[in-house]
Amino acid sequence: MPDLNFEVRGATADDAQALSRLSSSLFPLGCPANTSPEDLAKYIKKELSPERFRALLKDERIVILISKVGDALAGYALVARATAPPSLRSRAQLELRKFYIDSVYHGRGLAQVLMKEVLAIGSEEDEEGRIWLSVFSDNERAISFYTKYGFRIAVGADHQKDYLMLREDVINEEEVS
Asked: pTM to 2 decimals?
C-alpha cells in the first residue's frame, strides 16, 4: 500500500458535517449485532448530527482531533474532560469518548498517529497520562488496539456489555508498534 499523506489537527465548526457523516456510517459497526435499527437511528440523529458536533466543538471540556487524507475525513477522536466513574477507582479526568477510523484506512498507520495525539493530550492534562474509555465487550479489534496503548479492562461488562478500560501508567512509546 502506498504511504498515506495525512494530517491530524483540531476540528473546527467547518468539520461538523464531515464528522457527522463519518461517525454516522461507522458507529453501527461497533454496536451489538442485535441493536435495533430504530435505536441506532435515534442515537445517530440525536448524538451524531452536525448540530451536535458544532455544540461539542464549543464546549471547552471537549477536544476533537480529526485525521484527514487529502480532503477526506479519515478518522477522529473525541476526548472529554470527565471524571472516571467510581467503579474504576481511578483519578482519571479524561475520557476517550470516541475513536473512529474509516475502514478504508485500517492498517495504514493512521490510527496509531491519532492515538499518539490523544495520549499527548492525556499527558498534558495528567502527568501519569490517565485516560478512561468505554468499549463494547465484543469489539475485539478495538480492545486489542486500546490494549497496545496501555489500556486494560478495569471493570467488566455493564448492562450494555461495555467494558470500562483505563490507562494509568505512561508506557514507553517504543513498546507500541
From this structure: 0.87
